[in-house]
Amino acid sequence: MGREDYERRLTIFFSEKLDADKNGYISWADYELLALRTTFQQNSGRYDEGIHQKYLTHSRKMWESLCSDIGGDTEGQVQFRDLVNFMFVLTSKTQKFEELPDFLQNLATEVFYMVDKNGDNMWDKEEYRFGSVLWCYVTSLKGIDDAFNSMLNEQDQLHGGLSIDRFKELVTEFFTSLEADNPCRNIFGPLDPSRADKMLTRDVSK
Fold it and tell me: In this structure, what are the phi and psi dihedrals at residue 80, rounded to the nearest 5 degrees?
């Protein structure tokens, strides 16, 4: 079941974090939309052209990095299954965050700083709640809190949350562990892997 659980986990992640327009695949249009959303999120709900251009430039680099690693089809689309298969090959080769593909390092780092509202390089429970509600299909506050608490070790509890180094450690496990019940599965919010089955069987070319 390890491979199947892994596929579901990553498919939901790519769907919720990269497929911004929810059409079942990744394209440049998703990155454009993410740049616009981030502009408003990081500027207290107001539009600023300079900030937008900064995030567009960053999004372009992330998109080009993804295409360089994965490649796209003839329509300029990257399919979930291709992303998952690419990552599965790396599970036995990747031991630390810096060995993940550039597009994932960039995405994870952007997610961390977007959620770190007070800029202290730490996620506390309130910030994790913010990120989960922002990114995930979740309606239970208790479910969010349980997911957060499941990831905390002794040191995390002493510090009151997840440091950026601890975040990177859990992100690496998220993309490399085949264990279905590994707490790392919650690092990007409490994802529901069962939602992935339809996505994995969908033929978006039809």
Answer: -55, -45
Rounded to an integer, what distance in angstroms lies between the CA atom of residue 182 and that of residue 205?
34
Answer whether 148's CB lies under 8 Å from 125's CB. Answer: yes
Q: Note whether 131 and 173 are within 8 A (CB).
A: no
Q: Which residues pair with 79 in a beta bridge?
A: 25
Q: pLDDT tens digits for 127-148?
A: 999 999 887 878 789 999 999 9
| pLDDT band at residue 200 under the 50/70/90 scheme | low
Which DSSP string do the residues of 132-185 spell out, in sequence order? HHHHS----HHHHHHHHHHT--HHHHHHTSEEHHHHHHHHHHHHH---TT-GGG
Q: What angle do CA 139, 141, 145 make, to 5 degrees?
A: 130
End-to-end CA distance of the chain: 29
- Which tens digits make up the pLDDT trace of 146-178? 999 999 999 999 999 999 999 999 999 999 999
Residues in the chain: 206
For residue 172, CA distances in Å to 26, 71, 76, 128, 144 come to 22, 22, 28, 18, 21
Task: Report the amino acid identity of residue 26.
Answer: I
Q: Where are the alpha helices (DSSP H) in the chain?
A: 2-17, 28-41, 49-70, 80-90, 102-115, 125-135, 141-150, 154-159, 164-176, 196-201
CB contact set of 26 (below 8 Å; sequence gap of 6+): 14, 18, 19, 66, 77, 78, 79, 80, 83
pLDDT of 68 over the 80 cut: yes
